[in-house]
Amino acid sequence: MEYLKVNGTEYPAHFCGKQIDRDWDGRASKTVTLAMPYAQAVQLFVDGLRWVIVRREAGADDAAQEQVGAIEKLRRSARWDTLPEKLRQTAALRLEYPELSLVQLAEKCDPPVTKSCMNHRMRKLMEEAKEL
Fold first, then answer.
1. Global pTM?
2. Of 34, 37, 31, 46, which Cα lies nearest the Cα of 4?
3. Of 58-72, 84-98, 118-132, where does mean pLDDT reach its minimum?
4. Is 90:101 a contact under the CB 8 Å cutoff?
5. How far apart are alpha carbons 85 and 68 in whole angstroms?
6. Is 130 left (phi over 0), alpha (psi -120 to 50) or beta?
7. How far from 47 is each of 5, 44, 98, CA to CA, in Å?
């Protein structure tokens, strides 16, 4: 799935092309197709707007939901209080932001961590929940 992220909100979108726009100093440009009325889409693209293309692999939402379920199971158990603070922080972030990718969650950690670190923590949480 592809999304256009504007001001923290993600909109389903389709992107194509690396066309060279000769009227725009020869910079590469993309065609963006949004699933919304034209008038609403035009309002998103104001001068100076910063936007990001977000791509998620199919099944990422399923993995996130599985993680949320495991974390909720852990929180209902006595095991929750014995988890290291870093794992509890990771769990809290996943519960607060179930739609974010591991990279985006890693950036929200205090201090920020790598995707690999976030993946390791999620795997550890999943293992802990399976042991219950």
1. 0.56
2. 34
3. 58-72
4. no
5. 17
6. alpha
7. 16, 10, 31
